[in-house]
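Below is a filled-in request sheet from our internal design queue. Each sheet records the structural input a requester submitted and the sequence that came back. We keep these sheets so that new team members can see what a complete request looks like end to end.

REQUESTER: design group, bay 2
PRIORITY: normal
MODE: inverse folding
CHAIN LENGTH: 272
BACKBONE (tokenized):
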């Protein structure tokens, strides 16, 4: 036997048993090309899809030629690239600015304007719960509660899923008249009558245009509400945690029976 011959023969045997791979068919090549094109294209298309942004503006920059801030905002947006930007809300009390449907490039263009302080995307927030006043050690004997008269001159604004005003936590029994400094309103619609507001729930409004714009269709009123009425429960829970009246005999299906009460039992609530 010749060692060199065996070594030379081995590669030949291996090649005969595993033929070289054939080139991909034209249909497979076309499919791969389309996948590559769609991968590169989806980024820019997604970036130019309008979404809701909240734009904070310096009010002192408004030119005197505009009758109102809204006219000024509309004029500014009209100079942006297509598609046309759409204003959803304007703000002029706690903050100055507006919410609008913008593309990413339009939002970037606004950020470069001297009058614009910030441009933030509107994001859905995950709902959370919280604990009771016992966590802070509040008592009726002394301390913050009695010293502040249980915050009876305070109005707490709750931006959440609305409120269910008939709950015991929102009774106005024993409350003094509404503070004269309050300037808010109670939105009256079919499922939220004027009687829904009282000396406890002093204000209620609903804002849903941004939500409808984000989902791309009107709210289904058989499942959700366009009024301040809470159809989910979280807003009522949060409002009662902040300023719910004392409700004795509360429980969760018979468990954990006790008194339910908010942090500031005499504070007023404005629900949104």
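RETURNED SEQUENCE:
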């Amino acid at each position: 036997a010749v060692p060199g011959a065996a070594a030379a023969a081995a590669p030949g045997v291996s090649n005969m048993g595993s033929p070289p791979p054939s080139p991909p068919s034209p249909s497979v090549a076309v499919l791969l090309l389309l996948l590559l094109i769609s991968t590169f294209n989806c980024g820019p298309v997604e970036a130019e899809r309008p979404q809701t942004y909240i734009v904070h503006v310096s009010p002192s920059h408004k030119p005197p030629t505009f009758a109102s801030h809204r006219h000024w905002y509309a004029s500014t947006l009209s100079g942006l690239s297509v598609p046309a930007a759409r204003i959803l809300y304007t703000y002029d009390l706690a903050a100055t600015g507006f919410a609008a449907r913008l593309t990413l490039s339009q939002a970037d263009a606004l950020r470069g304007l001297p009058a614009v302080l910030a441009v933030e995307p509107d994001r859905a927030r995950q709902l959370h719960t919280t604990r009771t006043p016992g966590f802070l050690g509040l008592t009726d004997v002394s301390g913050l509660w009695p010293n502040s008269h249980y915050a009876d001159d305070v109005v707490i604004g709750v931006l959440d899923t609305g409120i269910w005003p008939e709950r015991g936590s929102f009774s106005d029994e024993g409350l003094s008249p509404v503070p004269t400094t309050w300037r808010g309103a109670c939105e009256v619609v079919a499922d939220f009558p004027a009687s829904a507001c009282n000396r406890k729930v002093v204000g209620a409004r609903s804002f849903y245009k941004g939500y409808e714009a984000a989902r791309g269709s009107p709210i289904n009123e058989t499942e959700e509400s366009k009024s301040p009425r809470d159809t989910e429960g979280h807003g009522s829970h949060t409002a009662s945690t902040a300023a719910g009246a004392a409700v004795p005999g509360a429980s969760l299906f018979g468990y954990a029976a006790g008194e339910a009460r908010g942090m500031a039992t005499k504070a007023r609530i404005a629900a949104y």
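SHEET NOTES:
- The chain has two domains: 51-121, 133-271.
- The helical segments are 3-17, 26-47, 69-78, 104-111, 144-147, 209-215, 234-243.
FILED BY: M.R.
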